[in-house]
Design goal:
The protein is an alpha/beta fold. The protein has two domains: 47-227, abc type-2 transporter like fold (3-Layer(aba) Sandwich); 231-431, no CATH class. It contains 17 helices and five strands. It has helices at residues 2-15, 17-39, 59-69, 94-102, 142-158, 160-175, 180-198, 234-256, 258-265, 267-272, 278-308, 316-340, 344-362, 373-379, 383-395, 405-425, 427-431, and strands at 48-54, 74-77, 108-112, 132-137, 221-227. Helix 3 (59-69) links the parallel strand 1 (48-54) and strand 2. Helix 8 (234-256) runs parallel beside helix 12 and helix 13 (344-362) crosses helix 14 (373-379). The longest helix is centred in the last third of the chain and has 31 residues, at 278-308. The relative contact order is 0.11.
Length: 432
């Protein structure tokens, strides 16, 4: 009897493909996604895009920039990329580099001030001359530390003669000068270093101290967070958007499931026999689901404002625009799932499978900027990624509503496209 019961249960599971996928496909998909995120971090170092502004134009600064360009873990840009082939744009300035960090184009920018080459190193923890400024985005805590360490390394590998010469000057001042014999040996060593400095450098040379920004390295660096510096718990707004979008997808798919209940009970046939068309019915249900999803977002952000004190009312225009567009896209997603599925049970299994995969790829579970490049690109095929990027622009970067046009455009296009597909699939109820 026990064997017969087990055999019956196995046959039922085989017939229910959605439950079968939920039992076996979803765990494998999740394992693969997180294995690609965390497994690759032990084998490869993520490359950091850095803007470098050389205001000094000295030999030392040019050597330092060259050393940074040879670092395999960094992508150095000294001027914006032109969209027109063959056209070269002007070099970055301190203002344009700061604007690029604020806009989220890069996480780090380095500004080498004028006069830095005359006194490039710090001695004994003090530095009297101009210091390199490291502009950072506080949302990425890894990139500034990585760039700061590689900056100290590049200073030793790219400009050893300059470092040794300035170091000897500081040492001579500290001990009261060198003897003639010591000075002779110092000059000979400096000549050898200059020969090494003029020889072709090897990428990824090691042996230099690595220190973070302002961490007591050979080069004095002042780090300044140009994004998130004066915000009150700004990451709370990020997680409110990330988690909010994921549960909006669940809410929209569950609410759209009322269409399946009506079809099963026969209510849908009676409604369609009246003057209500399928297009009008789907549009009405989608409008309700959009309002429901937007209301859910409002409640979540109001809770975050009351309990965690995020700056909600200072960003009302951007919040409303992103909230409505996100709600519209997830409502259309829910209508499509409801139109494609045949039962509530099937809808629940399929929606869980798709929403969890979309959320893991789109940044609702793990920040996308920490993912490998291929996975960041894959995340752009999810509603989550575009919604989170839009809310990040609003609450983190304080960008105006006009800067939201890429996210707004994609979400609205996705919403309209999914609704049209849902309307096409829903013809099966009209033909039944």
């Amino acid at each position: 009897m026990i064997f017969a019961i087990v055999r019956t249960a196995v046959a039922a599971l085989r017939r229910d493909r959605a439950s079968l996928a939920l039992s076996f496909v979803l765990p494998i998909a999740f394992f693969s996604i997180f294995a690609m995120i965390f497994g690759s971090q032990h084998n490869t170092v993520p490359r950091v895009h850095v803007i470098v502004v050389d205001q000094d134009k000295s030999t030392a600064s040019r050597q330092l920039v060259g050393g940074l360009e040879r670092e395999g873990s960094l992508i150095i840009s000294t001027r914006p990329k032109s969209k027109t082939k063959g056209q070269e744009l002007p070099e970055y300035t301190a203002a344009s580099a700061e604007a690029a960090v604020k806009a989220g184009d890069v996480s780090v920018a380095l500004v080498i001030p004028q006069g830095w080459g005359q006194n490039p190193i710090s001695f004994g923890g003090s530095h009297s001359g101009p210091v390199i400024e490291l502009l950072s985005d506080a949302s990425d805590a890894i990139a500034p530390q990585m760039v700061g360490g590689l900056l100290q390394k590049a200073s030793m590998t790219a400009m050893p003669a300059v470092m040794a010469e300035k170091g000897s000057e500081y040492t001579a001042q500290s001990i009261g000068g060198f003897t003639p014999e010591q000075q002779k040996r110092m000059d000979a060593n400096m000549a050898e270093l200059r020969q090494i400095e003029n020889a072709p450098a090897e990428t990824g040379a090691a042996g230099a101290p690595e220190a973070g920004p302002g961490g007591g390295g050979m080069i004095a660096v002042h780090e300044r967070a140009v994004v998130g510096e004066n915000k009150n718990k700004p990451m709370i707004s990020f997680y409110a958007a990330a988690i909010g979008v994921m549960f909006l997808l669940f809410t929209a798919s569950g609410s759209a499931g009322a269409l399946l209940d009506e079809a099963e009970s026969g209510t849908l046939d009676r409604v369609l026999s009246s003057r209500v068309t399928m297009t009008t019915l789907l549009a009405g249900k989608m409008t309700f689901n959009t309002l429901l999803a937007f209301s859910q977002l409002c409640v979540m952000f109001l809770f975050a404002w009351v309990v965690f004190h995020i700056d909600l009312f200072g960003h009302i225009p951007g919040f409303v625009v992103m909230g409505i567009c996100t709600a519209f896209a997830v409502a259309a997603f829910g209508m499509l799932l409801a139109s494609m599925c045949h039962t509530r049970a099937q809808l629940g299994a399929v929606s869980t499978l798709l929403i969890l995969i979309m959320s893991s790829l789109g940044g609702s579970m793990f920040p996308r900027f920490l993912m490998p490049k291929a996975m960041q690109t894959a995340g752009l095929f999810t509603i989550n990624a575009w919604a989170i990027d839009g809310f990040t622009k609003v609450f983190w970067r304080d960008l105006p509503v006009t800067a939201l046009w890429p996210q707004v455009g994609v979400l609205l296009t996705v919403g309209v496209g999914l609704f049209l597909i849902a309307r096409r699939v829903a013809r099966r109820w009209e033909l039944a």
